[in-house]
Amino acid sequence: MPVTIPQDLPAAEVLKQENIFFMTKERAIHQDIRPLQVALLNLMPNKIRTEQQFLRLLGNTALQVEMTFLTTATYQSKHTPRSYLQTFYQTFDQIQDRCFDALIITGSPVETLAFEEVAYWNELTEILNWAEEHVYSSFFVCWAAQAALYHHYGIGKILLPKKLSGVYSHIVRRKNHPLVRGFDDRFWAPHSRNTAVDENKLSAEQGLVVLSDSEEAGLYLAASQDGRKVFVTGHSEYDELTLHDEYQRDLAAGLAPQMPSHYYQGEEVLVRWRGHAHLLFSNWLNYHVYQGTPYQLEQLSKALQHR
User: Fold this and answer.
1) pTM recorded for the entire structure
2) At what angle do helices 274-283 and 47-58 cross, to 10 degrees?
3) pLDDT at 117
């Protein structure tokens, strides 16, 4: 079933060209099934590209998904026109009385800052606390995963000696876990970050389980025991050229970056994470959201008490 998106969203044309199944809200309201209500807090600078990346994955499941795009109120994006945000995005104060089946929080290029130094940190922690009672399952990506682990469990981040950039091989650690159902024993996924999570501290936290890691890239996938929080330290949503464009950007900025590892094959990009990415999001929506979230979202608080 399709992902439901706002009328006239620019990503629609790209999705149409790629044969991704989607529909507008106007069309969706004529169906009898209830779409999953998914909020996406987009913290990435290029919000339009990030929308497309996540919609590709959410739109390739057998579930109908209705999107709500969120942006921060305490920080104004410098890379996305205000008119675009006013048209397609909402802020937390506009949706705080609603309940959602799922919440996705993206990465953000602020990882070298202390969490408390991030301009929208207080707003983000308010959203994280709100999600405890208003969201059935949350999916945190890269910096957002580190931020949520720090806020909820007190697990800090570690500054890496150099930026980790590339596509890395990972091992599945809990083969019977629903999130990795259907995964190969080894799979590939992109990373692009300057910091890492202390896997030993995470493993010692009884409320968390490590599902996958990498000899080169470290921790990749973890989740809370109840499935309400999923932490991904990489970027399974990245499209073919995202790492390339980041590399070229850093070169132009004089940062002398290392070439992304295991990414180029000659002068071409070798994409070998696409299947894993689709399966990860499909598993999350099916097993951690759809199978447990109540049909009547106003009953969410009661459902969470019995989970």
Assistant:
1) 0.90
2) 70
3) 97
